[in-house]
Design goal:
By secondary structure, this protein is an alpha+beta fold. Helix content is about 25%, strand content about 40%. The protein contains three helices and seven strands. Strand 3 and strand 4 form a beta hairpin. The longest helix is centred in the last third of the chain and has 17 residues. The mean pLDDT is about 95.
């Protein structure tokens, strides 16, 4: 599989969900494999670099390669052809749909990028965000 699209409804406004997912302090709360994340600048904008540290102490870097405040952003992994797009669609004042899309320019997605794994991550994001 070269790409995977999933969506989930979150009981937060699109702006709140957008802001929450871009805050590097929040990432370890909903992605178990990440112990720390940092950004080279705030507020986030096109070209911002995010770094995250995995449980194995390895670091990965992502650049924001598309950005529309409160609507959408794309992270592209440095040294890779992997992209992750988050799109936030308002469903009223206090709800939104988050569409998550991960894709490779070439090759096939491997673990942990399976539908079940990513659905579990999005479910955890929903739980954490709605409890905040």
């Amino acid at each position: 599989m070269k790409n995977l699209n999933l969506s989930i409804t979150i009981n937060r406004s699109a702006h709140e969900a957008f802001t929450f997912t871009l805050n590097p302090d929040n990432t370890p709360k909903w992605i178990d494999g990440i112990v720390k994340e940092e950004a080279n600048e705030t507020p986030t904008k096109l070209g911002t670099i995010y770094r995250n540290q995995g449980r194995d102490d390895s670091w990965r870097e992502f650049e924001v390669t598309a950005y529309n405040p409160s609507v959408m952003f794309v992270w592209t992994e440095k040294g890779s052809d992997m992209h992750v797009k988050y799109t936030f669609k308002p469903l009223g004042d206090k709800r939104c749909e988050l569409e998550y899309c991960v894709w490779l320019d070439s090759g096939e997605l491997q673990e942990p990028f399976t539908r079940d794994n990513l659905q579990a991550i999005l479910q955890k994001l929903k739980r954490v965000m709605e409890q905040e």
